[in-house]
Automatic annotation (TrEMBL):
It is found in: Cell outer membrane. PROSITE patterns: FIMBRIAL_USHER. This is Fimbrial assembly protein. It holds the Pfam family PapC_C. GO terms for biological process: pilus assembly. It comes from the Bacteria. Residues 756-810 form the PapC-like C-terminal domain. It comes from Serratia oryzae. GO terms for cellular component: cell outer membrane. Keywords: Cell outer membrane, Fimbrium biogenesis, Membrane, Signal, Transmembrane, Transmembrane beta strand, Transport. Residues 29-172 form the PapC N-terminal domain. GO terms for molecular function: fimbrial usher porin activity. Residues 1-26 form the signal peptide. Its main location: membrane.
Length: 828
């Protein structure tokens, strides 16, 4: 009988709980006699009689504005005098984040000594609170807002993040031993960025270090490659950067300098007005370390397995030529260059993109060389399809100026043409020359193909870039210094892709083509050819069989470096594949069979064996692990009668703020990230398990795209039985380099059936609320004090409220067991 009564009382609690989360008409009168409770005089249903009634107090809520999440904050509900009501005190600093039109913003009224804002005068404006779910929803018609692009978050809603410290780094190591020698070579290198965020300023220092050891010989060095600070300026779609940096210009060639740079940042524009990031492709003959550098400064470093590789996560701000070095495990090194020239310089009508920089060149180390300079370039959208651009670089003995015209050809693509004149005064001569450039890009949707970039440039013999001027000046001043950059004549560059039979997965073939040709007035030409194609098809019951071919040739100083790789893989079981590779490097031919295991996406590995053209055996192994605290690539190789080698790369980062510290993966040195707080609960999986909270309930998401709306999700299906989350998804748009902070309200604890008693032995009225320290309702009191609590921890204090105010407090016993029925005294 007791069990039956308990079930009936619990059912009543559940019904009222559902009622509490459902809109109720204003001033509803309840018939308490219809409830199956013992004493109908002890009932508190006042909060259900008014639609959306919220008890006065301060609540930590997520702000949802027009379906877009804003950062969590404290929201206060004030008591209305002489009434059982409360009213929302909307913080006035939320109004600018709504991006209201100027005439609409004037309708907002401030009250409570300007501490609260009232938006009720805005036509169609609505506010609704779901306190139980921790959300305040604000809806305003699109016609009242400045912007009308649902796929773009306006600058007013960007989050500058919180103060904090960070360290992002990549460590690579390799040990090589020649078979015919006792010599063992060890090499360790590290690159990374350390920094601090103060308000909207991002302070950064890039570093690189190497250590080489062979027998008793050892050399090492450490250097701060760049020390700088930058400030995003969202309302101006620009960025201010001071310190050591590379010139980021769409007109003039890049060079390193120390000074200041103020430039438009196209990443702050809507997606269809943004550019692209450079991509590096090549073939590794064995497990190899690939480093990408510019001006001697390493920008990216990683370990790749044997075969074709692609690096596509470089910064979109990289300009000019990149030097790529591939270090094989047998000690051999191959190099090539990649041109990162951008698509035609076009600007939307009426908009001006600008770039202003001043300082002194800093070519080697911290030493300032060359003249003090000032440069400025711009692009002006003069009409729907036309853009005028140009600029000048003024530096005393070196000056240059440029002018160009860009044209949107609609279905024919986009084209730009420009001319640059340089004037360089050297100790023994004066050089004056011109350079002409044509850029083209086109996406052929109907043919599933794209010319990512096609360019041609011709420079006269006496045309000089700032880099050439600086190195010529330095070599004249120091005969022992071997610095040289060839005098360019002609350059052809093309990057294109094509998908054949894209409508049929079983027949589709994707082809990539890269070609660059560079001739010089004073040295031999160099060429880089790249081709790759891939096809996925089915053979009978065998699905997703893959065939790919890659071929690259680099011609430099009269020498050719050729690489061809033919790959065939087939599935065997769930996420396992067998493969065969035929690879040639110049005249060396290798046949390799491989086994790949992707059973655990976070732990993948590959083993392979084969023979070369001399019938010498080889063995290789490659292991990749992606974890919350970093990413590891490890490799080992053995070549009969040649060498044995082991190596690897570990990329990680550490971020610290007032909310905690966490190690995490490193997706870009010093880049944008989210710090996630799971209320001290560890092991909470986030974003499909890509990361999880540490022992202190802190995690960091590092693969965040600046100025783009980002969803962060808790994997509710992977939560432990004693863990609950109120809102599993949060959103945010961060400015560049920001450390965003998002708090998930996660409850970890027992489920208890409690009976709450007051000091005089009576019970709280039916319908009273039980709230935790953050103001979230944990439960509702039923008949005779029966209350079902979830997610409560030992010794956790809980408030019991009725009649619109907090009345007393209960404390969860230390020894309480899950699903146990306990007595909870409620004390003042």
């Amino acid at each position: 009988m007791t069990s039956l009564m308990t079930r009936k009382k619990t059912s009543t609690i559940v019904i009222l709980s559902l009622l509490y989360g459902t809109p109720v008409s204003a001033e509803i009168q309840f018939n308490a006699g219809a409830l199956d409770i013992g004493d109908i005089t002890k009932v508190d249903l006042s909060r259900f009689s008014n639609a959306g009634y919220i008890m006065p107090g301060t609540y930590l809520l997520d702000i949802k504005f027009n379906k877009r999440m804003l950062p969590q904050r404290s929201i206060e509900y004030l008591r209305v005098a002489d009434k059982e009501e409360s009213t929302l005190c909307l913080p006035p600093d939320l109004i600018p984040q709504m991006a209201l039109k100027e005439e609409i913003a004037k309708k907002v009224v401030l009250w409570q000594d300007n501490k609260c804002a009232d938006i009720s005068a805005i036509p169609g404006a609505e506010i609704s609170a779901h306190i139980g779910n921790g959300v305040l929803m604000i809806t305003i018609p699109q016609s009242s807002l400045k912007y009308n692009d649902p796929n773009w978050t306006p600058p007013e809603q960007w989050d500058k993040g919180i103060p904090g410290l960070l360290l992002d780094y990549s460590i690579s190591g390799q040990i090589n031993k020649a078979s015919n020698s006792q010599d063992t070579t060890r090499r360790i290198s590290a690159v990374g960025t350390t920094g601090a965020n103060v308000n909207s300023w991002r302070l950064r220092a890039d570093f690189q270090s190497t250590m080489n050891q062979r027998e008793d010989e050892r050399d090492s060095n450490f250097a701060w490659s760049n020390i700088y600070a930058y400030l995003p300026l969202p309302m101006h779609a620009a960025k201010l950067k001071v310190g050591e940096q590379f010139l980021d210009s769409n007109i003039f060639d890049s060079f390193r300098f120390a000074g200041a740079n103020l430039a438009s940042d196209e990443r702050m524009l809507p997606p269809d007005l943004q550019g692209y990031a450079p991509q590096v492709r090549g073939i590794a003959r064995s497990n190899a370390k690939v480093s990408v550098s510019q001006g001697g400064i390493v920008l990216f470093e990683t370990t790749v397995p044997a075969g074709p590789f692609s690096i596509d996560n470089l910064s979109s701000g990289v300009r000019g030529q990149l030097d790529v070095k591939v270090e094989e495990q047998d000690g051999s090194i191959s190099t090539f260059q990649v041109d990162t020239a951008t698509i035609p310089y076009l600007t939307r009508p009426g908009y001006i993109r600008y770039n202003i920089a001043t300082g002194r060149p800093s070519v080697v180390g911290r030493k300032l060389e060359g003249p003090f300079f000032t440069t400025s370039d711009f692009s002006w959208g003069i009409a729907n399809s036309w853009s005028l651009y140009g600029g000048a670089l003024i530096g005393g003995d070196y000056n240059a100026w440029s002018v160009g015209l860009g044209r949107d050809l609609s279905i024919l693509g986009a084209l730009s043409v420009d001319m640059t004149q340089s004037y360089a005064r050297l100790p023994d001569e004066t050089n004056s020359g011109m350079s002409f450039r044509v850029n083209y890009a086109k996406r052929f949707e109907e043919y599933d193909s794209q010319i990512t970039f096609a360019g041609y440039r011709f420079s006269q013999r006496k045309f000089m870039t700032m880099n050439q001027f600086l190195q010529k000046t330095e070599s004249d001043n120091n005969n022992e210094l071997e610095l040289y950059i060839g005098r360019e004549k002609e350059q052809y560059t093309i990057a294109a892709s094509k998908t054949f039979m894209a409508q049929d997965k079983g027949k589709a073939i994707t082809v990539y083509l890269n070609y660059s040709h560079q001739t010089y007035w004073d040295s031999r030409s160099q060429d880089r050819y790249g081709f790759s194609a891939s096809k996925i098809f089915d053979i009978g019951q065998m699905r997703d069989v893959t065939v790919s071919v890659s071929a690259f040739r680099t011609e430099l100083n009269g020498l050719s470096d050729d690489s061809i790789s033919l790959n065939f893989t087939m599935p065997i079981g769930d996420r396992r594949r067998l493969g065969y590779t035929l690879q040639t490097n110049n005249n060396d031919i290798t046949n390799v069979a491989s086994y790949n295991d992707y059973t655990d996406p976070s732990n993948t590995w590959q083993v392979s064996s084969g023979v070369n053209q001399n019938s010498k055996a080889l063995l290789r192994g490659f292991y990749s692990r992606n974890d919350s605290f970093g990413d590891l690539n490890a490799s080992a190789s053995y070549q009969q009668d040649s060498f044995s080698s082991i190596g690897g790369t570990f990329r990680s980062g550490i971020t610290a703020t007032q909310h905690g510290v966490a190690a995490h993966s490193n997706n870009g040195d010093g880049s944008t990230r989210f710090m996630i707080d799971t209320d001290g609960v560890s092991g909470v999986h986030i974003n499909n398990g890509r990361t999880k909270s540490n022992l202190f309930g802190i995690a960091v998401i590092s693969d965040v795209v600046s100025y783009s709306n980002t969803d962060t999700r808790i994997d509710v299906n992977k939560l432990a039985d004693d863990v609950e989350v109120i809102t599993p998804v949060v959103q945010g748009t961060l400015t560049e380099g920001a450390i965003g902070y998002r708090h998930f309200e996660v409850a970890k604890g027992s489920k208890l059936m409690a009976i709450i008693k007051l000091a005089d032995g009576s019970t709280p009225p039916f319908g009273a609320s039980v709230l935790n320290g953050k103001g979230r309702e944990m439960a509702m009191v039923g008949d005779e004090g029966l209350t079902y609590l979830t997610g409560v921890e030992a010794e956790e204090p809980l408030d019991v409220a009725w009649d619109g105010k907090h009345q007393c407090k209960v404390v969860v016993p230390k020894a309480a067991k899950s699903l146990e029925q306990i007595l909870l005294p409620c004390k003042l």
